[in-house]
Amino acid sequence: MDKRNHCPPDVNSINGFCSKTKIFHSLRPRVPLPPLTDHQPLSVTDYGLSLLTTSASAASSTFIIDASSDDDQQLTFSQTLRLAGFLTLRLRARFSLSKGDVAFILVPPSINVPIIYLSLLSLGVVISPANPLSSDSEIAHQVRISNPSIAFATSWTASKLLPKLRLGVVLVDSPEFDSVLTHYSDTGSASFCSSSMPLLSNVNRVCPSDPATILYSSGTTGHVKGVLMTHRNLIALIAGRYHVEPKIDPGPVESELPQPRRRVCLFALPPFHAYGFLMLIMAFVMGETLNIMRRFEFEAMLRAVEKYRATRLLVSPPIVMNLVKSKITNKYDLSSLENAVCGGAPLDRKVSEQFRAKFPHVELMLGYAMTESGSVGSRMMGPYESRRYGSVGRLSENMEAKIVDPVTGEALPPGQKGELWLRGPCIMKGYVGDDKATAETINSDGWLKTGDLCYFDSEGFLFIVDRLKELIKYKAYQVPPAELEHLLQSNPEIADAAVIPYPDDEAGQIPMAFVVRKAGSNITETQVIDFIAKQLNFSLKVAPYKKIRRVAFVDNISKSPAGKILRRHLINLAVSGPKARL
């Protein structure tokens, strides 16, 4: 089906731009959403189960495998639902959890995570997952934001939860918790309708407008904020993906009979991050098999792809760069891979081209989203879009966008750069406890101001230039750090790099590079500076104001779990002492 036929009459069918309203519209088919009024209770769990039960063979199919365990610990869809249901009964009986209670989740990746998520969502409890590796002060800040009544943690993360919560902490590695799952795990392949769904029934009458999650923004340019998403937001996300992406009936893994290719995902994402959390929920609804990694290790990921014949990789940009640059990939059979879905941070077009050259049978599907947009924005679909290197695909289904001049506020046409604004049913309700920040980010017409400098090309492909707040102000010029980072990463002696603004009395700010040398490299500061000065960027020399003027060599670049460079940390490191200390 030609997706361009779905545009309104006044909208350009090639790029989705309306010259009257200056709004870009999605070229994807418009996805109908279920009635999302509070007159009819509907949780995201209800909606997800209604879609999952359309697959007759899903009950006995494998949903999740612990790729880090020696015994291939795994659960079927039916087992996962029944365990989530029995956990729901236990939680209701012991804690009397009510709709709107917040549960803080401080649990490393494991097959228990989706069980906890499904159970709490069915109760109307607001899920607030956090990074178990965060510092005590970071956890304390997130707890202050979310104000949880209960937490789920392990014996080694629970100590970070101070002061004590009203309903205490559930230890998921305790004998008591394990006994619940062990007792009910041997459930066979009972049908969803007769056994699983009643245990996850909407007993608290959860409505679409009720809060579902508090997810945390990356905090790369400011303090971490709690992003509040409703059940309506998550339902819209699921509906969009479910009705646009092809479904594959997940037949038994063990079957040797001819059958459609199963979608087996190697899940190398943190489930506490917005991208990982939402992709985990989507994989469940889409009937996919997930191979989850408790602790990411690059070669372990390659072994898992070979062992489980994974067809899809869910990854962040640093992993893609490793796939391109690492020679150990040749040791493993990766022929089962069909695509790699990448998001969370920008990826240079040269890296995409190198990936295509090294893995010609794998489609690299890039996308753009924010925690605040419900991990929805733009994405690639199909072979044609995957080859639009440098872009992050086209607008996702049911989404609208504007490119706005940061100075004049004027909406701009294709080909012109400005701040990206997004609007659609997945946009967050707001920042928890911060009305001022919410009002500054979402205007009265529902437009989310992303803070990203972007443009759409003549075919509706979105290109990310940089974060507006991260642009380096060199004299009267603006320097995008990402542009210089991509050039630095193309140097064969550089493993990774980040560029920050460094204060300068004359220029205001100068571009400073943090560089990670490749093993065996002795590249110097002068060589790095000269390399950038001589580089060509789209057949034009790098403008003099964009040149690197200061370099520090480090062992690694500080990044968020999604792969975003933590510039605030690097800026603090750069200005906190003499350069010789870096």
TrEMBL record:
<dbReference type="InterPro" id="IPR020845">
    <property type="entry name" value="AMP-binding_CS"/>
</dbReference>
<keyword id="KW-0812">Transmembrane</keyword>
<keyword id="KW-0436">Ligase</keyword>
<feature type="domain" description="AMP-dependent synthetase/ligase">
    <location>
        <begin position="62"/>
        <end position="431"/>
    </location>
</feature>
<feature type="domain" description="AMP-binding enzyme C-terminal">
    <location>
        <begin position="483"/>
        <end position="564"/>
    </location>
</feature>
<keyword id="KW-1133">Transmembrane helix</keyword>
<keyword id="KW-0472">Membrane</keyword>
<feature type="transmembrane region" description="Helical">
    <location>
        <begin position="272"/>
        <end position="293"/>
    </location>
</feature>
<dbReference type="InterPro" id="IPR045851">
    <property type="entry name" value="AMP-bd_C_sf"/>
</dbReference>
<protein>
    <submittedName>
        <fullName>4-coumarate--CoA ligase-like 9 isoform X1</fullName>
    </submittedName>
</protein>
<dbReference type="Pfam" id="PF00501">
    <property type="entry name" value="AMP-binding"/>
</dbReference>
<dbReference type="InterPro" id="IPR025110">
    <property type="entry name" value="AMP-bd_C"/>
</dbReference>
<dbReference type="InterPro" id="IPR042099">
    <property type="entry name" value="ANL_N_sf"/>
</dbReference>
<dbReference type="Pfam" id="PF13193">
    <property type="entry name" value="AMP-binding_C"/>
</dbReference>
<comment type="similarity">
    <text>Belongs to the ATP-dependent AMP-binding enzyme family.</text>
</comment>
<dbReference type="InterPro" id="IPR000873">
    <property type="entry name" value="AMP-dep_synth/lig_dom"/>
</dbReference>
<dbReference type="GO" id="GO:0016405">
    <property type="term" value="F:CoA-ligase activity"/>
</dbReference>
